[in-house]
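quick one before i forget lol
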Amino acid sequence: MGIILWIVFGALVGWIANLVVGGRERQRQGCLVSVLVGVVGAALGGFIYRLATGEQQHFEFDFPSFGVAILGAIVLLLVLRLVSAATTSRRDRDRW
């Protein structure tokens, strides 16, 4: 896949994952962050797919790859939000 297709793929995946996860951070996420979440989520989804099935996932612009990438991006967003929430609560606790 060319770099332009990766950017488009990543933007779509990041945007859809952000819609699924929702929350108040959804409004603050820009296009560049959506692309990064989509591309990193695709890599994470491929890694999870390989761990679960033992097969290598070859990313092409098709629906199975799109689904794996979206699941990986959702996992990534959920982990990032958990870390962010833990950091925020710890910072608030330390302030008092």
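fyi The two ends are 51 Å apart (CA to CA).
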